[in-house]
């Protein structure tokens, strides 16, 4: 209790100290208000994966559905070829270009070397497929399913590959955390550390293309049953927060099939399809996924480890797409999740600080096992993203609008009611006014940890629709209102001990950043600092020690030193004219 009081007092003191400029900073690092647009920040603005997503039609930014439609169409003109690592790229392209103009290509490694080749016309694929053989059946018998996944071999490997250098492969995975920490240490501000992290870990343009291609390959299988279906990516592959190696969430969209054509205006009759009827939409989804899951398992080239998880809240088929190198979760009848992805995409595209903060917090949580790829009582990336967005809505002035404000900006075509849930919000990014908030990411990161280190989780819920805390309607440890299915808590799975771990880590990280900012840090330039220091395993172990530490005299010592620093800061504030922290470049 005493330590909690101490911490609260400390936080209050911090708040007072904040308006007053800083005294000392570690040498070589700029003060919070001096952050400038470095090359890594500039690079983040041109970040791969955003290039096309953010590209404009005339002066207008494209909407999420427009970007998706473009990428899906591109994927249908694309093939995936397993080829030798040592191959003449020139001859390879010449060979393929007999079938049509090639728009782009790249190589990568995943259980062998693969080439992704995008033709400019879809017809080229048919032309190529016409000359491709089915595998010999000397030893094993092949299931004769013709896809756009091919194998290319050399006719004379010994002579053709002898003096070839391996082709250049694009990266499909992140660098190790230790290497990342080193890179972060050479940035010149915490803000630039966040952009560096994003540069290193975000999905690349090539990886995004591969994700759409994998969807398009699965669509071909599903099309055997439902020729008008589409398979679209959702979740972090498209919501701007995806990290290299994240899973690929796929949505089997059968809605086009259900859409009624314009009714015949003349004649005395109606005609409709006879269709099998089942008691509920859930049962329909389970049956469809069961069959498509079997098809993927039996006929899907490169698809291994197929699991049908049909009793989950949202039934799914999970498998590994070995050539692409990611785990895929295929769902259907999941239109709300598709809308959530679009909403996150909008938030992520509004202001570069949103993406950088959310991305960094997600990576931080992953490093410390706050989130996990395994389902369990921990905070999910989706929940954590909602928390970060909520925090950004609570700034003064807010950095992003609330969901209700986005709904107010919606036009007629934005209206979406999914199974009775209102999923309406403006999809046109150009209609959303940029924020006037100029805080740096240094401030935002530190305040994020402080905010959630002291949030009244026992009393309040988080709600991005309103951008306000509300009383919790039920006693789950963490209550984050589902933005669309508003009666649901997206973090119902989280137990008290996982929430406590998050809170303890958040406090520890707020403390580390605050100490550095005051120049009190024991860290010098040769040791990890800023975001790099927060990613070290010792942060988590300090939390456990910190529990004891805060009960003992150290807590009061800390308060005393903060009181002292408050006096100094107050004195300086008279000189520094308040030292209001702003970030100088608003172009991001
Ligand atoms: P990672 O896969 O961890 O990188 O992040 P992700 O955002 O893709 O999360 P995940 O694969 O767990 O979920 C994919 C999408 O499903 C999310 O982006 C959400 O749109 C949706 N989703 C995930 N969890 C929930 C939930 O608890 N409730 C609701 N309504 N939707 C969810
Ligand atoms: Mg995902």
Radius of gyration: 27 Å
Helical residue percent band? 40-55%
- Average pLDDT score: 83
Quick one: biggest sheet? 5 strands, mixed
Can you give a write-up of this model?
This protein has 588 residues and is of the alpha+beta class. The protein has helices at 2-18, 39-45, 64-76, 89-96, 123-131, 157-160, 177-185, 190-201, 205-222, 255-258, 281-299, 335-350, 352-367, 381-393, 403-408, 441-453, 496-517, 530-534, 537-551, 553-576, and strands at residues 56-57, 60-61, 78-83, 102-109, 113-119, 149-151, 169-170, 230-234, 248-253, 303-309, 316-321, 326-332, 417-418, 421-422, 460-461, 470-471. The longest helix is centred in the last third of the chain and has 24 residues, at 553-576. The two termini are 43 Å apart. Residues 1-54 and 548-588 have low confidence and may be disordered. Bound molecules: guanosine-5'-triphosphate and magnesium ion. Guanosine-5'-triphosphate binds next to helix 12 and helix 14. Keywords: Magnesium, Metal-binding, Signal, Transferase.
């Amino acid at each position: 209790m005493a330590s909690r009081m101490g911490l609260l007092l400390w936080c209050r003191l911090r708040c007072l100290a904040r308006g007053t400029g800083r005294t000392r900073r570690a040498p070589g690092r700029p003060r919070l208000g001096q952050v400038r647009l470095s090359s890594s920040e500039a690079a983040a603005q041109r970040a791969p994966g955003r290039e096309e997503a953010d590209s404009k039609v005339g002066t207008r930014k494209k909407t999420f559905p427009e970007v998706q439609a473009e990428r899906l169409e591109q994927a249908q003109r694309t093939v995936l070829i397993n080829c030798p690592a040592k191959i003449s790229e020139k001859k390879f392209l010449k060979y393929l270009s007999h079938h049509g103009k090639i728009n782009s290509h790249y190589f990568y490694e995943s259980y062998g070397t693969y080439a992704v080749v995008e033709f400019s016309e879809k017809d080229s694929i048919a032309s190529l497929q016409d000359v491709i053989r089915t595998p010999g059946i000397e030893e094993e018998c092949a299931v004769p399913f013709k896809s756009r996944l091919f194998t290319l071999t050399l006719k004379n490997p010994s002579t053709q590959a002898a003096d070839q250098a391996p082709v250049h492969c694009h990266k499909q995975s992140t660098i190790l955390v230790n290497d990342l920490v080193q890179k972060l240490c050479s940035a010149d501000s915490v803000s630039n550390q966040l952009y560096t992290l994003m540069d290193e870990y975000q999905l690349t343009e090539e990886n995004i293309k591969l994700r759409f291609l994998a969807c398009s390959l699965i669509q071909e299988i599903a099309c055997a049953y439902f020729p008008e279906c589409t398979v679209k990516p959702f979740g972090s592959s498209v919501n701007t927060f995806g990290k290299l190696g994240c899973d690929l969430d796929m949505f089997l969209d059968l809605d086009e099939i259900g859409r009624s054509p314009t009714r015949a205006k003349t004649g005395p009759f109606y005609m409709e399809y006879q269709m099998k009827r089942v008691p509920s939409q859930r049962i329909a989804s389970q049956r469809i996924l069961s069959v498509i899951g079997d098809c993927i398992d039996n006929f899907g080239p490169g698809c291994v480890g197929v699991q049908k998880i049909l009793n989950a809240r949202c039934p799914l088929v999970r498998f590994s797409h070995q050539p692409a190198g990611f785990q895929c979760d295929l769902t259907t009848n999941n239109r709300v999740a598709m809308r959530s992805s679009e909403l996150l995409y909008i938030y992520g595209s509004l202001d570069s600080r949103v993406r950088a903060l959310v991305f960094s917090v997600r990576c931080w949580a992953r490093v410390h096992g706050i989130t996990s790829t395994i389902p369990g009582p921990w905070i999910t990336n989706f929940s954590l993203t909602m928390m970060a967005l909520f925090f950004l809505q609570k700034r003064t002035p807010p950095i992003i609008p609330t969901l209700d404000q986005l709904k107010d900006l919606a036009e007629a075509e934005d209206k979406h009611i999914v199974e009775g849930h209102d999923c309406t919000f403006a999809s046109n990014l150009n209609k959303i006014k940029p924020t006037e908030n100029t805080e740096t990411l240094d401030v935002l990161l530190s305040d994020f940890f402080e905010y959630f280190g002291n949030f009244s989780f026992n009393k309040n819920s988080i709600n991005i629709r309103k951008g306000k805390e509300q009383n919790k309607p039920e006693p789950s440890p963490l209550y984050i209102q589902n933005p669309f299915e508003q009666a649901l808590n997206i973090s119902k799975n989280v137990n008290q001990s996982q929430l406590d771990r998050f809170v303890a880590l958040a406090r520890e990280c707020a403390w580390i950043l605050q100490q550095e900012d005051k120049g009190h840090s024991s860290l010098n330039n040769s040791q990890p600092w800023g975001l790099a220091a927060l990613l070290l395993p010792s942060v988590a172990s300090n939390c456990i020690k910190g529990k004891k530490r805060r009960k003992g005299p150290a807590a009061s010592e800390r308060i005393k030193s903060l009181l002292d620093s408050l006096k100094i800061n107050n004195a300086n504030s008279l000189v520094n004219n308040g030292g209001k922290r702003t970030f100088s470049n608003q172009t991001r």
